[in-house]
Design goal:
Strand order of the largest sheet: 1-3-2
Radius of gyration: 18 Å
Low-confidence stretches: none
Number of helices: 3
Helix content: 25-40%
Largest sheet: 3 strands, antiparallel
Shape: flat
Strand content: 35-45%
Distance between the termini: 47 Å
Structural class: alpha+beta
Mean pLDDT: 96
Amino acid sequence: MSKPKSPRKVGDKEALSVGTQIRGSAQKLNLVAALIRGRKAGDAMNILQFSKKGMAVDARKVLASAIANAENNHNLDVDALVVAEASVGKSITMKRFATRGRGKSTRILKPFSRLRIVVREQEEA
């Protein structure tokens, strides 16, 4: 016996992509995610392509993956896709140290973030 198939985490007309370890703080990534929430997928790709924010590069990769999942896995129309959700959370934090004067040291925290993008096929109105 095998275990039962897990249910889908999103709706029937939706596709999901998650970037689990994006190097940078969640606060900076959330600024980029706010730029694309609720926009059409093509417009969101253009916004991320020409954004000056460094986190936009990784956000664009996750969005491209979500669009590819919608097209290849769920047979959704790419031209009708809208970014339904772009949520950001904390992931791991690398701890490093820097040597300081008089034999002391301080901690350096290098955070990672998670980005979850859901695209939805919107009916033409």
